[in-house]
Amino acid sequence: MVACDTILSNPQSLIIVKNNLTKYHLLQDNFLLITTGVFSDVRVLIRFIKAEMQLHEMRFGKEYSHHELVHKIRMILAEHFTWEPMQIIATYYNEKDGAQIKVLDGAKDIQSVNYVGQGMLGTEVCTSCIQPIYRPNLTEDQAYLIMLESMKILMTRVPINFPVIKVVVVNKLGVQERPDILG
Q1: What are the CA-CA distances from residue 168 to residues 5, 75, 101 (Å)?
Q2: 68: helix, strand or coil
Q3: In this record, what's one Pfam family (predicted)?
C-alpha cells in the first residue's frame, strides 16, 4: 500500500505550483513507481523507462521481470539522472516474492523495506508513526488505518496543506485505488 501527495511545490519557498499531480506511475500490471524530485526530471525519467521497456520487449519478445525492471531503473538513474536528487520507490507484486517495496535513493542504491514514507518529511514522519506498530501480517484494512493516522500526523507537522493524499494498493489482483485521504 502506498500513499502519495498530489502537489507540486517549490521546497525553498513552499509555494504550491500544482495541486492535482499524480506521483505514482503504472509501469506494468502489478508494478508502480512512486517519485519525488524535480517534476521535469521525473517526467523525463518515466518516458525514458517506458522507452527502455518497449525496446526490451521488441528485442526479447517479453517484458522485464519485476526484479529486472528495478535494476534497470537503478542503472538509468545512475547513468542519466545524476544531477538532481530523486527518491524513487518501486512497489510490485508477483507470485514468487509476494508484495515488495524497493527504495532507490539518491546514491542509486536499492533497499528492500517493509514500509517507507515519500518526500522531504514524509519519510521521517511516516517511519516514526509506522515503526512501533508495524507487523508483517497486517491486513489491508489495518494497514490503511495506520496509513490514515500517519498522514494525519504528517499534515499537522508540515507547513504545506495537502488537499489530497492518494492511496494505492499493489497486490495479486493488480493495482487498486483506496479512498483518498483528504486534508
Answers
A1: 12, 26, 13
A2: helix
A3: Proteasome
- Amino acid of residue 49: I
Say which CATH number the domain at 141 has. 3.60.20.10
SS3 state of residue 120: coil
Residue labelled with grid coordinates 514468487 = 96
Which residue segment(s) compose the domain that 177 sits in?
Answer: 2-182
Q: What is the largest CA-CA distance in the chain?
A: 50
Q: Tell me the three cell numbers of residue 80.
A: 542519466
Q: Which three cell numbers stand for residue 91?
A: 512497489
Q: Give the tens place of pLDDT for each residue, 17-74.
A: 556 667 788 999 899 988 876 666 777 888 889 999 999 999 999 999 999 999 998 8
**Per the structure, how many domains does the chain have?**
1
Taking phi first (over 0 means left), then psi (-120 to 50 degrees means alpha), and beta for anything else, what does residue 5 get? Answer: beta
Please name the helix (run of DSSP H) or strand (run of DSSP E) that holds residue 180, with its range, or none: strand 174-182
CA dist 173 → 48, 72, 90, 111, 179 (Å):
27, 25, 17, 25, 17
